[in-house]
Amino acid sequence: MNKELQIDDLTRGINDEEHMFNETERQEQEAPAPEAREHNTAHPGDKCWQDFMAYLEVPADGDGKAGRLVCKLDRDLADSLDDCDIRGRCRSDLVNAIVRSFFENHLSRLAQYRREKKSLFNNYNPESHA
Asked: What's the superkingdom here (predicted)?
């Protein structure tokens, strides 16, 4: 008898359509709209996040793949970006917006790491080699 009560307690509400509907309804009410999530995640004055969102506002290139290069991304980052649904933009759009906002906010810091071009062509003067 004791086992039957435990099983009944465990199975109570499984096929109850009203309970399932109410649970789904409650989850929908608790979940913020995507626009609200976007605004709630950034801290006030978080310029990098605001720039990121602004870059996502810009329409995708009409060229498609013509103006893009391939860049390998770590699997965990790719999977994480694929899990994000930010304004319906694809992984490449998200990566471009992230990198552009980072460059915009940290260009002066990045400039000190700019490589010197060490090509032999830098010192090539066509007049002296004629």
From this structure: Bacteria
Q: Give the span between the Cα atoms of 115 and 52, in whole angstroms.
A: 26
Residue 103 domain boundaries: 2-114
**How many angstroms separate the CA atoms of 28 and 126, rounded?**
70
| Residue 125 within any structural domain of the chain | no
How is 65-118 classified by DSSP, letter by letter?
Answer: GGG-------HHHHHHHHH--STT--HHHHHHHHHHHHHHHHHHHHHTTPPPP-
Calculate what percentage of the chain has a pLDDT beyond 90: 42
In a domain, 58, yes or no: yes
Q: Rounded to an integer, what distance in angstroms lies between the CA atom of residue 10 and that of residue 73?
A: 45
Q: How many domains does the chain have?
A: 1
30 within domain boundaries: yes
Q: Is residue 82 part of a domain?
A: yes
The rounded distance, in Å, linking the Cα atoms of 130 and 119 is: 20
Write down the residue that tokens 């004791």 correspond to: 2
Residue 123 has what DSSP assignment?
G
- pLDDT of residue 89 exceeding 70, the answer is yes
